[in-house]
Amino acid sequence: MQTSKTIVAVNKDADAPIFELADHGVVGDLFAVLPQLVDEIERRRS
Question: Is residue 36 part of a domain?
C-alpha cells in the first residue's frame, strides 16, 4: 500500500485501523457497498 496513489477502505467497524491509512473510507458491508460503487463508476464512465 505504500506505493498506492489512492487507498479506499471498506469495513463494518468504524474504528478499524485501516481507516487511519486510507484516503477514503466507507463504513459498511463490502458486499453491499461494492456493487453500488461499481454501478456508479460505470455510470460516470458512460
Answer: yes
Give the CA-trace dihedral at 30, 36, 41, 43, to 10 degrees.
Answer: 170
Amino acid at 41: I
Number of domains in the chain: 1
The pLDDT score that the predictor gives to residue 17 is 98
pTM, to two decimals? 0.77
Q: Using CA atoms, how far apart are residues 29 and 46, in angstroms rounded to an integer?
A: 27
DSSP string, 9-44: EEES-TT-THHHH-SEEEES-HHHHHHHHHHHHHHH
